[in-house]
Amino acid sequence: MLCFRQLALGILLAVALGANGAGTNSIVWHRAVDRVDANVRGEGLLPVLGQIAADTGWRVYVEPGTARTASAKFQNLPEADALRMLLGNLNFMLSPETNGPSQLYVFSTVIQNATQLVPATKVKGRH
After folding, report:
1. How far apart are CA 16 and CA 81, in angstroms?
2. Band of the pLDDT at 31, cuts 50, 70, 90?
3. How far is CA 111 from CA 27, 56, 70, 104, in A?
């Protein structure tokens, strides 16, 4: 009987912890002050880049075949530091434009290989 109670308590605890982690993936770009908040766990590179494109209005290009699983939690970081946290060991360059949207290039080899345009999409929390 005691083992059943411990098992049931363990299952309830696991479900509760899972519920707290569900839906937490978010990136908020505060464009007016160039600061970023993020709470991302186990998110693929393309959804993260799509969120960045959606929040910033930047045109984001990635080297085809580049993969990364992003996990980061921070608040109020400058955008360059936020990109470093989200992109990890990947290289990137942000090219500000005066007559159009800035362009972000993300690559693992050389910048010229960042040719795949990433569509702007919002990161959806997991349920």
Report:
1. 33
2. confident
3. 25, 20, 20, 10
Q: Do residues 29 and 76 make contact, with C-beta atoms less than 8 angstroms apart?
A: no
List Cβ neighbours of 78 (8 Å cut-off, separation of 6 or more).
34, 35, 36
Length of the chain as a residue count: 127
Q: Which amino acid is at 115?
A: T
pTM reported for the whole predicted model: 0.77
What separation in angstroms does the CA of 99 have from each of 47, 96, 102, 103?
27, 9, 9, 12
User: 25-29, 62-66, 119-123: lowest mean pLDDT where?
Assistant: 119-123
Would you call 118 helix, strand, or coil by DSSP?
strand
Burial of 5 (0-12, 13-18, 19+ CB in 10 A): exposed
